[in-house]
Specification:
- This protein has 380 residues and is mainly alpha-helical.
- It has a domain at 18-235: Alpha Horseshoe (Serine Threonine Protein Phosphatase 5, Tetratricopeptide repeat).
- The protein contains 11 helices and 2 strands; from the N terminus they run ααααββααααααα.
- Helix 6 (160-188) packs antiparallel against helix 7 (199-224).
- The longest helix is centred in the middle third of the chain and has 29 residues, at 160-188.
- The radius of gyration is 25 Å and the shape is elongated.
Length: 380
Amino acid sequence: MMISCPGLSKFKTKQVVFEEVFPACDSGTLEQLKEMSSKRRAIEESINESSSVTEAIAREMSGGLTLRCEQDIQKLEQYLPLLENLVYHVNRGRNNPWVDRWMSDLKLRWTSPLISSSIFHVKSPKYFQINYVQFELGMVLFLYGSLLREKALEILQTDLVQSAALFRKAAGVYQHLAHEVLPSLQLAARTERPPESVPSVSSVMSLVCLAEAQAVAARRAEEKGNTQNLLAKLHYGVRDFLDEALVILHSATKECKDISSPFADFIISCRMLHELKSYKYIAESLKVDGKIGAAAGLLRHALTSIGKSTPKGEAWRLVYKQLVQEMTELLRKYEHENDFVWHEKVVTKHELPLPETIKIVTSTPYQPQRSEKTLAFKQV
């Protein structure tokens, strides 16, 4: 039982030609800048859907990778070390006036899939322009994390272990963004910015990925036939990750008022579903322990408390209705058995056991790779 929020990797960007912005002092620097432009152009054409390369050629160029997101991940992993190196050398000269002159010519422009207006301006999306190389690094890393998460969702049905590993890797990328990359951009750029460039939004995404990794772990535990008690704790752990994400998201919306409501709806719906799943397993565990009155009371309380709350997404509602139906049938079964066999008191919500939680996943730390080639620029 997992629901998804598609479209978080649907960025678009305008072309950047680095060798036209940064005056190279030697042939080695010029070659490096041209390579950067080439690597970025491959990313531009892919995410802008402007490439003329066929699927067969794209697969051959990527060494046999079949998924589009896999091919884009590979392109980003080739571009990021070059970009990290440029950021390093630009930061070394940050106190020089010629650096500001270059930045004004850089014109880095990206769209945001997280803003609500992106839904209504598909043909002419809103571009955010911040002329700092840290902005480029931030947006590229956010795209990288989104594609890792997209790949994790695509292989979910076939490889749970690899899917969980990718969710944890994406969480590490977002965590690195929130703590190491974006804070410096907040001090440098005072213009309007997309949510993806705000540290708290990356923190939200990191927690979402951790919740999804734990949800995969819960599914593996279900397939292995682990106890209902353990399964209840795992699903409540997913709920706790998402609860923390919602608190941070509420704070982030004060800074980014245009964050798309479907994104928040996804987190709320996912939180609710895993909380219900946890209650279902707690009830089953209580029944195994011979506490059928407590089990029936817990199911009754869970179904009553969420009776007026339904997910807004159609696909999410289908998952929700199926789970509610399962819990309703289970409650009917327990009540019938209790009436005819056990005659236990059905406990009220004030007497119900409190849910317990465990979190068994952590993020995989992101280790940035930097090209070691020296860049030398003319101070003009």
